[in-house]
């Protein structure tokens, strides 16, 4: 039953007997108060085959057939019960860390997530301002002015709930696919035009870089983490989904699509531009002309292209400016996630009462979105931002999910021996795989952080040696 599961979860919050008893009593009181309001929603979800809470589509519970008072009734086949429901609310990852792994894992997760998300929000602000500053279509504001414009857009959006942003987020998904096609297609068109054709200004000489440069692995890995991580946002992203039975396939398809898109962009763009690639590679399309127009030299020696085809101008503007629009949609998603995590870490067990207050939600989301905007005014280089903050992404993507898998499975086996699988169970749902993933994340953190520290210390020591000479 829902109350039984909540009691078991609360009992795992701490080991001392007194705290366990107090926590269990609190959970029972809260469950009794919430049950009345959640009953109707629970009946609707079960009737539709859906699920809500932390145990979607759990394994059926067998019920013993009723025993007659007088004579024993003929045996009937046992029918499985309906799915177990916890309640019409979501569980944020910090709450799950506290519930299954204890307070130390909560502190570690909040440190990793805070550093990662603040860095991601910082990078979004930098991408927006750099993209607009490099475009000829938008000028006059400067970098600081575009940061101010960015904050005026994203801060109000960060105060809205995800349900109010569904239409915007879905439409931008199609725009992202068009972005991939525009970047790859324009480079392929240049390649098919011949070795003497140049579709970019300034002209990019055709290069033959190596397919693999292993020395840059420690730089690539944190960027790859930034590009593919949304684990910390899964509770919030899952809440608006009507049929949560499809969540596993939805997130799986997202991983496959994003990985294929980034690999395609990385191979094509990296091979074409080589060492001339910008930190934000979309800026390379600022001078795209598609082989049209005439290059004219001014009196001061500078050159510009005239009579560029309208389609080439449109493609150039789209590739340069769309990331600025895209980060406007991505910033609120991460700000909401970070704000919810900060709210949960601050209020602890009272999170579900505290998050009902608009004042609490607004205050912690401002804590999440304002510091990185001010940070972007000080540091604008995207590579500097992602080098160190991206390291924590490995722990968020690999180590903490593996820990939650191990300890949650142990708790279920302890309190509900017959409920050992859920609707998301697969061949990798075992402790051996979870331990492998956990240590894989730890190794990545140690490797990348060690390389970055070694590079930084090497440059520092080299500077000291030059100064002495």
What report would you give on this structure?
The radius of gyration is 27 Å and the shape is globular. The protein contains 15 helices and two strands. The chain is mostly helical and 469 residues long. The chain has helices spanning 2-11, 17-47, 93-101, 103-133, 142-158, 166-192, 217-228, 234-238, 247-273, 310-347, 351-354, 358-378, 382-389, 392-415, 431-468; strands at residues 294-297, 303-306. The chain folds into two domains: 2-47, no CATH class; 93-468, Amino acid/polyamine transporter I, CATH 1.20.1740. Residues 16-26 have a biased composition (Low complexity). Residues 16-51 are annotated as: Disordered. Keywords: Membrane, Transmembrane, Transmembrane helix. The chain crosses the membrane at residues 106-125, 137-160, 172-191, 211-229, 250-273, 315-343, 388-408, 433-456.
Summarize the structure.
It is built from 15 helices and 2 strands. It has helices at 2-11, 17-47, 93-101, 103-133, 142-158, 166-192, 217-228, 234-238, 247-273, 310-347, 351-354, 358-378, 382-389, 392-415, 431-468; strands spanning 294-297, 303-306. It starts with a helix and ends with a helix.
């Amino acid at each position: 039953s829902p109350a039984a599961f909540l009691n078991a979860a609360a009992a795992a919050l701490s080991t001392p007997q007194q705290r366990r008893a107090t926590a269990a009593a609190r959970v029972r009181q809260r469950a009794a108060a919430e049950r009345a309001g959640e009953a109707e929603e629970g009946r609707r979800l079960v009737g539709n085959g859906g699920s809500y809470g932390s145990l979607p589509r759990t394994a059926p519970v067998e019920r013993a057939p009723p025993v007659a008072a007088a004579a024993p009734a003929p045996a009937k086949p046992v029918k499985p019960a309906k799915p177990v429901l916890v309640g019409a609310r979501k569980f944020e990852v910090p709450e799950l860390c506290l519930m299954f792994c204890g307070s130390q894992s909560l502190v570690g997760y909040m440190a990793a997530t805070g550093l990662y998300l603040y860095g991601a929000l910082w990078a979004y602000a930098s991408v927006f301002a750099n993209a607009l500053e490099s475009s000829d279509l938008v000028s006059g504001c400067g970098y600081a002015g575009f940061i101010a414009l960015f904050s005026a857009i994203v801060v109000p959006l960060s105060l809205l709930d995800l349900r109010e942003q569904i239409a915007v987020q879905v439409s931008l998904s199609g725009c992202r696919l068009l972005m991939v096609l525009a970047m790859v297609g324009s480079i392929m068109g240049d390649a098919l035009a011949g070795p003497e054709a140049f579709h970019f200004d300034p002209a990019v000489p055709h290069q033959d870089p190596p397919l693999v440069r292993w020395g840059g692995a420690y730089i690539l890995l944190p960027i790859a983490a930034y590009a593919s991580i949304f684990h910390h946002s899964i509770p919030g992203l899952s809440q608006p989904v009507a049929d949560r039975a499809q969540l596993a396939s939805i997130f799986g398809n997202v991983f496959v699509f994003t990985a294929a898109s980034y690999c395609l962009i990385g191979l094509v763009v990296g091979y074409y531009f080589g060492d001339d690639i910008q930190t934000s590679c979309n800026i390379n399309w600022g001078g795209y002309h598609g082989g049209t127009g005439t290059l004219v030299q001014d009196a001061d020696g500078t050159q510009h292209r005239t009579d560029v085809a309208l389609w080439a101008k449109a493609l150039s503007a789209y590739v340069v400016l769309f990331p600025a629009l895209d980060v406007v949609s991505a910033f609120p998603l991460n700000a909401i996630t970070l704000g919810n995590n900060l709210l949960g870490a601050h209020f602890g067990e009272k999170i579900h009462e505290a998050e009902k207050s608009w004042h609490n939600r607004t205050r912690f989301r401002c804590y999440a979105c304002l510091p990185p905007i001010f940070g972007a005014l000080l540091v604008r280089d995207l590579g500097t931002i992602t080098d160190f903050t991206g390291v924590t992404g490995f722990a968020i993507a690999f180590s903490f999910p593996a820990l939650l898998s191990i300890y949650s499975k142990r708790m279920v086996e302890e309190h509900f021996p017959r409920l050992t699988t859920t609707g998301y169970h697969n061949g990798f749902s075992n402790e051996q795989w979870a331990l492998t993933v956990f240590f894989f994340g730890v190794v990545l953190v140690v490797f990348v952080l060690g390389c970055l520290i070694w590079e930084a210390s090497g440059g520092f020591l080299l500077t000291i040696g030059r100064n002495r000479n």
